[in-house]
Backbone:
């Protein structure tokens, strides 16, 4: 598949769990053969890049983030040939594929760790981080605070402690060892040769450890990724690296390097602040953080998201903000996990359709590449009683049939039960039902993605400028790219707002409302007057005054179906 320059900046990503998408061989688990059958659905939805959650051999104690063989597809998901066919079929539909890559740690079942622990003389011993005491690197935070008390675990076989930033069954690899670094390059090569268009690199801040530091974002870690980038560029030009670095703005931005490290990074700082802004009905949590996360180098992009397969993380907010988020969005203690909230998007906002549309309006027009999480396009529900993050990882809902059309096995054989909560029951919340209803969330997302696709350049690559105005509940900004300007206006509150917007530089311009393709009154001398109902929003292209005889500008195309 070709990779035009900066292709990722114009993309819309879709995070897909092979386990959760479609069961092609009737064993209760999704697989590559099943996912191939659903590629047309994804193309029709209007996304163009698929991010696959880890699909490698694994004991699944952390849902595949605990890899026991980097060179094998998990047998439940199919064979390498099935994987190859998936890539081919995705590419045939112009869908690119980015795979998760877990570099920081392996499963304790991995033969590397088994060899390492069994024999201090083993060549694999030094592939992990060992210590005779658990007192090294003191003060380094524990990430999975609900399960782990320390980043060290005593291994009775090795008779030493080993270092792990996540679960104690996920020993960290030792990146000071050049063999480990070389092995990871081999893994990257292996999958890129099979056609992967990029990697979402998991847990990037934690590769190296140094005494007296937080053991996060160390210079050595950046040097490793710069090296990886250079090698990828040399051998696989056009493929991308996307960083999962859940850090404060300055620390995440550092992963773009000097356009020589990651192409993309998730905008973790922005995500919780979108939820804070809508709950408080004020724009400044969003405007402040967007300003703090910009500028970034021209060839780099943020990946922006509302939800993903993990808990809605609240690690990088203040204590006060975290308390506020829990109070607003996690009323029951069972909804909380570690420092976060384990709920899907629609239940988080009480299935409020206006809010869901507002959130997607923001996701699709703030600077960055939008990343959707499978099922959220249906307004899928969750099940917070399933343990760990399983409640947001239940089977995709395809139809009102048995198991939501995901699988033909007996329901008790499913990897996780489907959602039957009456408010979110799969019998009505599923692809088949929502395709039939033109008012469904799915159809709405399809339509809005079609609009966004027409403006992919300005939203994906354009500058942003926040416009000052008097109402704190309104979020107003311009996106501009190569002479095209889109004005975005959002009412973050439950009350109607009336706004007077001063737009002197656009005098005589005509706002073209993008969703309905409707021309609004021309901007004149006086401030432009808007009223916005509860959670209402608009995108307008600002069309310059036309000399009488010219033809309409190219962007005035008819509304999408
Ligand atoms: C990342 C993944 C998460 C996983 C963790 C450990 O944060 O998103 O699902 O548990 O890494 O690999």
Residues:
């Amino acid at each position: 598949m070709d990779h035009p320059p900066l292709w990722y900046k114009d993309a819309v990503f879709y995070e897909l769990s092979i386990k959760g998408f479609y069961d092609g061989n009737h064993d209760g688990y999704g697989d590559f053969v099943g996912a191939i059958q659903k590629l047309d659905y994804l193309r029709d939805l209007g996304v163009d890049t698929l991010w696959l959650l880890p699909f490698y051999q694994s004991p699944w104690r952390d849902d595949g983030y605990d890899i026991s063989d980097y060179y094998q597809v998990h047998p439940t998901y199919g064979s390498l040939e099935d994987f190859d066919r998936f890539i081919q079929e995705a590419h045939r539909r112009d869908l690119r594929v980015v795979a998760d890559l877990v570099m920081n740690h392996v499963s304790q079942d991995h033969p590397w760790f088994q060899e390492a622990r069994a024999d201090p003389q083993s060549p694999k011993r030094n592939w992990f981080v060992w210590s005779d005491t658990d007192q090294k690197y003191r003060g380094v935070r524990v990430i999975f605070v609900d399960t782990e008390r320390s980043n060290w675990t005593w291994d009775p076989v090795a008779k030493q402690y080993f270092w792990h930033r996540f679960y104690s069954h996920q020993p960290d690899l030792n990146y000071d060892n050049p063999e480990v670094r070389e092995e990871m390059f081999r893994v990257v090569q292996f999958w890129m040769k099979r056609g992967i268009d990029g990697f979402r690199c998991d847990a990037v801040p934690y590769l190296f450890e140094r005494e007296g530091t937080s053991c996060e974002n160390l210079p050595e870690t950046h040097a490793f990724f710069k090296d990886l980038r250079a090698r990828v560029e040399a051998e696989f030009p056009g493929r991308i690296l996307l960083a999962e670095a859940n850090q404060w703005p300055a620390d995440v931005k550092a992963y773009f390097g000097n356009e020589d490290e990651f192409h993309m990074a998730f905008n973790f700082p922005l995500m919780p602040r979108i939820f804070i802004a809508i709950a408080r009905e004020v724009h400044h949590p969003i405007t402040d953080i967007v300003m703090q996360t910009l500028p970034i180098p021209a060839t780099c992009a943020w990946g922006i998201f509302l939800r993903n397969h993990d808990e809605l993380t609240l690690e990088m907010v203040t204590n006060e903000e975290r308390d506020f988020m829990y109070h607003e969005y996690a009323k029951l203690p069972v909804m909380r996990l570690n420092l976060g909230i384990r709920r899907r998007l629609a239940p988080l906002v009480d299935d409020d359709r206006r809010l869901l549309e507002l959130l997607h309006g923001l996701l699709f027009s703030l600077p960055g590449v939008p990343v959707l999480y499978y099922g959220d396009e249906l307004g899928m529900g969750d099940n917070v009683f399933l343990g760990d993050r399983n409640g947001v990882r239940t089977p995709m809902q395809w139809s009102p049939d048995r198991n939501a059309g995901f699988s033909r096995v007996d329901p008790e054989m499913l990897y996780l039960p489907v959602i039957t909560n009456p408010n979110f029951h799969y019998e009505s919340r599923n692809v088949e039902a929502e395709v039939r209803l033109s008012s469904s969330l799915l159809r709405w997302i399809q339509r809005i993605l079609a609009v966004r696709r027409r403006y992919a350049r300005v939203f994906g690559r354009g500058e942003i400028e926040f416009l000052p105005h008097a109402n704190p509940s309104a979020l107003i900004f311009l996106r501009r790219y190569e002479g095209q300007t889109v004005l975005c206006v959002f009412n973050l509150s439950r009350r109607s707002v009336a706004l007077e917007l001063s737009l002197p530089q656009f005098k005589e311009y005509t706002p073209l409302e993008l969703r309905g393709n409707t021309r609004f009154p021309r901007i004149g001398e006086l401030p432009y007057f808007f009223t916005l109902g509860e959670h209402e929003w608009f995108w307008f292209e600002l069309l310059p005054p036309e000399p009488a005889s010219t033809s309409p500008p190219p962007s005035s195309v008819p509304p999408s179906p």
About this structure: Residues 62, 65, 102, 166, 202-203, 244, 309-310 surround alpha-D-glucopyranose (CB under 6 Å).
